[in-house]
Design brief:
Distance between the termini: 53 Å
Catalytic activity: Exonucleolytic cleavage in the 3'- to 5'-direction to yield nucleoside 5'-phosphates
Biased composition (Polar residues): 328-338
Strand content: 5-15%
Mean pLDDT: 82
GO molecular function, one term: metal ion binding
Biased composition (Basic and acidic residues): 17-31, 43-52
Radius of gyration: 24 Å
Keywords: Cytoplasm, Exonuclease, Hydrolase, Magnesium, Metal-binding, Nuclease, Nucleus, Phosphoprotein, RNA-binding, RNA-mediated gene silencing, rRNA processing
Low-confidence stretches: 1-30, 32-64, 119-127
Helix content: 25-40%
Length: 352
Amino acid sequence: MEACSGRPPAGEGQESQLRRGSDGPVPREELTPAGMSQGKQQCHLDRQERNGKKAVVSSPSDFSDPVYKEIAVTNGYINRMSKEELRAKLSEFKLETRGVKDVLKKRLKNYYKKEKLTQQREDGDAGGYYDYICVIDFEATCEEGNPPEFTHEIIEFPIVLLNAHTLEIEDTFQQYVRPEINTQLSDFCISLTGITQEMVDRADTFPQVLRNVVDWMRLKELGTKYKYCILTDGSWDMSKFLNIQCQISRLRYPSFAKKWINIRKSYGNFYKVPRNHTKLTVMLEKLGMSYDGRPHSGLDDSKNIARIAVRMLRDGCELRVNEKMQGDQLTSVSSSSPVEGAPAPQMPHCRN
């Protein structure tokens, strides 16, 4: 947490405070909409001319460029703003004003940085990495206390299709799944998920549901016309539940699900918060939102995870794959790795 200090003297407005500092004044236009626009055109120029010399173009990776010094100085001013001043400035730029103070600071800093670095995209575009994000949050059979010998089987397969450019949910997929080992749902599972015995009794088994998923994704032209990736709330959906289910159903692990974005990791790294602040309801709360729907409904959980992803993208986060399955092992994906979309979905072969 960054403490708020340096309150303005009586009668001094927030604009003046934002421009003060021991490192010297920042021109008023830099933190106004007009200044943002001007900076967008000139951010990589040292000066248009200096003593008759031509301007020097700096690389975005060259952190000696004056633009980065300006960003650093401005970040210091933003750190000293009160929550009310942060909200007022965000409102001036027509940005979201909900969230805890650290989130508001991050939002304003990223907006200013994006404008100064002349990124040629609207706020919220996923950095050109993907056209679509498929948010998946399985529900599985469970018992109270989840004894270690209990085998979890997927009983709900939801997908929320998020357009990474418009930041709108374009479509959803949801099918229930009939378990084959623990065919009778526990009272605890029914109460937790809202999925009844009748729902799963009427449902197809996992192999058929997975075929339906593949057909639906192909219909959306994912992996062919459009670049996409999967996003989950944690590692377990893919590394545990899908992995175990494929073993039960004697299917190879589907290639399109081998890499994904773990939004908990992305959220923690972007907003600089500890791991215990990355639970779904806590992330929503810190971003100034509340859960919409029924908790532990796979589809409703997926929609709320998508809402968090949208807010992060608007705040300047560049969501990208950060976890993968290598064999049967969960591993991390380095942020320096090339960004690739998931392959076109195909029904996996049966295990030998």
